[in-house]
Amino acid sequence: MSGRLLLGVCGSANILALPQHLIALAGDGGPEIRIVMTRSAAALMPPATLGLLCPDVLCDGRDELTTSHVSLAGWADRLVVLPATANILGQAAGGLASGLLSSVLLAHERPVLFFPAMNRHMWRHPAVRRNVARLRADGHVVMEPVLGPAWQVATQDVQENCGLPTPTAVRAVVDEFLRLPLDPLGATEAGGLATPPPPGARRDGDAAAGAWSGAPPSATAGRQARGGPVGPAPVGAVGAARPAPGREG
């Protein structure tokens, strides 16, 4: 799917899987991609490493004074945040612009697609639930994370945490997001897929847990015909996929 995709990257340990996601997103006629990293993301994954896969990588703390957030927001057909931490969800929900990525989110005129990844207790916290609800009510798309065994850096052990879908599943969701009309935020309901992704996009172990706010009639009808859920899936509804190590950065 062609188009211009701006990828926001935050400081979750799930960033360790980002190279595989970039390869999946860029392959087979994928969109033109530019990347904006937060400071914590750059501390976990050197921008030069992502630069091997994407020629245009921008960072908080390095590029915010020389890069126009308004120009970046206008360049992008679609804006996707992967992984999205509790911090960036809160900033986006509250309309804060403390860095390059949060400023771009505020200047972008279309719905944004968020792929959250964080500790399961953080994801279930009432404040995070309020922020997610606010973003969905505003017309943005917040996917439900995949719950599965993951190495937790903070405790140095394996725990059930909220991580990212597989690269194949993310590519399927992003492709459909790119196909949606490029309407301004609030003009129409943001819509798209709910879990699971289209049958043709799945393979063993793939699971894009979550639901998009305001799915279009075609997607909703398809899920009803299959007997699937129409609303957001609860945390833990999909446990087959194993995300990369999860930790808020």
What does this structure look like?
It is a single chain. The chain has helices spanning 18-26, 39-44, 47-51, 69-75, 86-94, 100-107, 120-123, 126-138, 167-179, 217-226; strands at 4-9, 32-37, 57-59, 78-84, 112-116, 141-142, 146-152, 157-163. With 249 residues, the chain is α/β, with parallel strands linked by helices. It has one domain: 3-Layer(aba) Sandwich (Rossmann fold), CATH 3.40.50. The strands form two sheets. A six-stranded parallel β-sheet has the order 3-2-1-4-5-6, sandwiched between helices. Strands 7-8 form a two-stranded antiparallel sheet. Strand 7 and strand 8 (157-163) form a beta hairpin. Helix 5 (86-94) crosses helix 8. The protein starts with a strand and ends in a 23-residue tail after the last helix. Mean pLDDT is 79; it is low at 191-249.
Distance between the termini: 31 Å
Taking the sheet with the most strands, its summary is: 6 strands, parallel
Share of helix, binned: 25-40%
The CATH superfamily is Flavin prenyltransferase-like
Radius of gyration: 16 Å
The tally of strands reads: 8
Write the layout of secondary structure elements.
Blueprint: E1 4-9, H1 18-26, E2 32-37, H2 39-44, H3 47-51, E3 57-59, H4 69-75, E4 78-84, H5 86-94, H6 100-107, E5 112-116, H7 120-123, H8 126-138, E6 141-142, E7 146-152, E8 157-163, H9 167-179, H10 217-226
Parallel strand pairs: 1-2, 1-4, 2-3, 4-5, 5-6
Antiparallel strand pairs: 7-8
